[in-house]
Amino acid sequence: MKNAHPLLQALEALYPPERLLTRDAQLLTYESDALTAFHSKPAAAVIPISEAEVIETVRLCHQLAVPFVARGSGTSLSGGSLPIADGLLVALNRLNRIKSIDPEQRIAVVEPGVVNLHITHAAAPYGLYYAPDPSSQSICTIGGNIAFNSGGAHCLKYGMTSNHVLGMKVVLADGAVTEFGSDSLDGCGVGPDLIGLFVGSEGLFGIALEITVRLLPQPERYRTLLAAYDDLGKAGDAVSRVVASGMLPGAIEIMDRLAIQAAEAAVQAGYPDAEALLIVELEGEAPQVEAEFAQLQAMMRASGAFELRSARDEAERARIWKGRKGAFSAVGRLSPDYIVQDGVVPRSRLGEALTRIKALKTKHQLEVANVFHAGDGNLHPLILYDGRQPGALEKAEALAGEILALCIKLGGSITGEHGVGMEKRDYMPAMFSEQELDIMQALRRAIDPKEIANRGKMFPSGEAPALQQRGMHPLERQGVISRE
Question: What CATH number is attached to the domain comprising 20?
């Protein structure tokens, strides 16, 4: 788009100059998200401060067939909020009001630019909190959480974002404004699950303008246990023991030696020196938590843990979680670049998956820091590389491809919560048949006939907004997919 483009002319009438960004220096911030291996420059970015501005912007884009991408804090690890070259970026950070909190109904009504953790802060005086807790919850926004159906460490017990959204007001890609769901749990079961359709759609249907989320009572008691192991596979097998026992912890997390070392250097969490660390947190009513905690300790000793530590107070518990949630950024101390993968395996095969990932990193001669939402089998291996070295990115991607192929072979998925975005588009045929992908595309076109909402994401045949130079795809090398 040039400055004379009709869309830019229309946007100049809608936005003041300080909220319509067209100069290269202004757009530099938006050229990439948390997947920095991809980058692209939009033709312009707008910063709306009202839902009316968002609606009018989307209608203009539809009228003039200009692609757009909605963006919050840009924390997507799959390139999901990457701008479309010569398209429009809609930055939603200033739509950040918590409109209301109803402590009796246990709901909050928020705008898409509200930071995840700010909902809990606002609900805390009422003894309530918002359960989904991605590692980036101190900066990620609810709009992005909805786009990718974000989870977090406690999703084992409480589920993903889709389990906590009761209602939404959205502007679809054709400019139509509609509402899904209601402000109560009772209303969510009536008719088609349109919230379930929209949440996790990666911005391909439109933009959420207002979201009603449910709040939960703060647990009476937390008990947080660290179990140290001399082998990563043993930690994975311990997860299977916990799940098989019928116990339902609030969270079960695994970190390997590299992740432990990085987190310790960053936040001094007081972790044991171990090959693998299991973090298990119980929460709920005090009598039940204490009874289960004794059972959990016995189970961890029987699983081969050589050391057990429990958080003695809230400050120690906060340090444990600060180390875990800061692990991704802390790994930056170990390597200038890394790829974060997001595959899923059945919990019963978690120990096998960890052992095989260890063999794969030896094969490729690359370091991998492992951090997992172990309770639901969601793997987050961080593959370390130095992008300044020729061929280093391609080598890391080859290992990433083999890990995703492993997840599929073990009966899992290519993504748990980070989404497909740009990163995993070409892996979709390994998970879904051509007919299934056609159905997905048909549904998308029914809502967005011009395919302007987040164009080029998720589907392998989509037009890419930006690409790195690549050779053969990692899954082609293994015969998992074919482009012939």
Answer: 3.30.43.10
Residue 286 has pLDDT above 80, yes or no: yes
Q: Is the pLDDT of residue 475 over 90?
A: no
The rounded distance, in Å, linking the Cα atoms of 91 and 111 is 13
Please give the helix or strand (H or E) that residue 226 lies within, else none: strand 221-229
Query: Does 419 or 187 have the greater pLDDT score?
Result: 419
Using left for φ > 0, alpha for ψ between -120 and 50, and beta otherwise, residue 464 falls in beta
More confident residue, 402 or 376: 402
| CA 157 to each of CA 11, 105, 283, 412: distance values in angstroms, whole numbers, following the listed order | 45, 21, 10, 19
pLDDT tens digits for range 188-237? 556 788 999 999 999 999 999 999 999 999 999 999 999 999 998 899 88
Interior angle at CA 313, CA 308 and CA 315, nearest 5? 105
For every residue of 139-191, DSSP letters joined together read T-BHHHHHHHT--BTTHHHH--GGGTEEEEEEEETTS-EEEEE-SSTGGGGSS
Residue 56, H or E segment: helix 51-64
Give domain status of residue 189, yes or no: yes
Last residue of a domain, one of 330, 358, 383: 330
Q: How many CA within 13 A on the CB side of residue 273?
A: 0
User: Residue 484 domain-assigned?
Assistant: no
pLDDT at residue 162 tops 50: yes
